[in-house]
Structures are given as structure tokens and as C-alpha cells.
Amino acid sequence: FDANGVTGNGTGYGDTGFNPSTAGGQYRLDSAFIACYIGDEVPGDGVFVGTFTTNSSVMLRKLNATDLQSRGPTSSQILYHIGFTTDWRGLLSLYRYSFYICVALNGSEPLMITSSSTRLPDDTIPVLAGRWNWGVPSYLSTANLRALVIGGGGVTPQDMDTLLLIINSFQFNLGRKAI
């Protein structure tokens, strides 16, 4: 970590130590979310944050210059967002809202896909890498992450907009360029 957050080097990763299935209600099946604030306009390919097990996952992965792959946050459903963005800076969020999986960058009009919740992910969540079926993390990223938020407590698209405002204020107070 430094004044600009943490930047992956493509060979190392962090581990939050947070396991949604043992978090005592802090990550709920019906309202889970994960969000990371990306500092790069065009970060390297790889997983920003996430874990995948046979029955459930939570993951945000940049596939190439403009495409995003998301999994979860409370199912094993894989979604591909082709042409998602050309400027990755800001708050990238994946959350459960009502009957939808929502993916958004900077809170604007989330992509909403109908999906059922199946179960909570049952492994700790790495940062700047992805873990598959309790294995060693792979798809390491060289992205710059400036914030990471994981939780579950009835989030709405408006809540994610509020979270973006709070993190932007934090960025500004640290002297970083806020999106």
C-alpha cells in the first residue's frame, strides 16, 4: 500500500481473510455486495477481487481492454459484459438487489440481470487475484485498487451511488484524483 492504494505486480496478491459463509450475517444471501475503486484508466487484465467455488462465487475480472466478467455475488452464474467500458477508473460494484445481479461502474445505471441466489461463497476473497475451488490464486492483476468494500445489508443502486460519493470524498481528502 502507498498513498495511491495498492497496485498489483502480476506475481503477488492480497487476501482479505473474509469468508462470506462464515461471516455471521455480514454477507447475506439476499443482499450481498462487493465493490472496488480502480485507479487505472486501463488496468492490466486479471481479477480485481474474487473467489469461485463449484456452487457459488463473487468475482470481478477484466478480460481485455473493454470487457468485464462477473460472477455471483451469491450464485455461480457467470456474466460477460462485452464493451463494458474503455475507462475503468472509479467504483466497480457487483451486488444483489431484489431478484437481480447488478454490475455498475461509478453507480450509473447498473446492468441488471435476473438471477436466483443459491448459496454464499465458502472461501476467503483474494485481492488482485482470483481463487478457483480453494486453490492457489491465479489471474493476478496489475491494477491499482484504491478501496475495497464487502458487505451485505440490503443495498440498492442508490446506496451504491452514496458509497461512490463517500469514496470520492476520501480520495479527494487524500489528494488523489477523484472520478
Describe the 3D structure:
This protein has 179 residues and is mostly beta strands. The protein has 1 helix and 13 strands. The chain has one helix spanning 157-173; strands spanning 6-7, 14-15, 32-38, 46-52, 57-62, 68-75, 78-81, 90-97, 100-105, 111-114, 126-127, 131-132, 144-152. A 6-stranded antiparallel β-sheet has the order 1-13-3-8-9-10, covered by helices on one side. Strand 8 and strand 9 form a beta hairpin. The longest helix is centred in the last third of the chain and has 17 residues, at 157-173. The two termini are 20 Å apart. The mean pLDDT is 84.
- The structural class is mainly beta
Main sheet: strand order: 1-13-3-8-9-10
Count of runs of 4 or more consecutive helical residues: 1
Q: How do the SSEs run, as a string of H and E?
A: EEEEEEEEEEEEEH
Overall mean pLDDT stands at 84
Rounded Rg? 15 Å
Distance between the termini: 20 Å
Please describe the biggest sheet, giving its number of strands, its sense, and whether it closes into a barrel. Answer: 6 strands, antiparallel
Q: What is the general shape?
A: globular
Estimated helix fraction: under 10%
Give the uncertain stretches in residue-range form.
Answer: none
Q: State the total count of DSSP E strands.
A: 13
The fraction of residues in strands falls at 35-45%
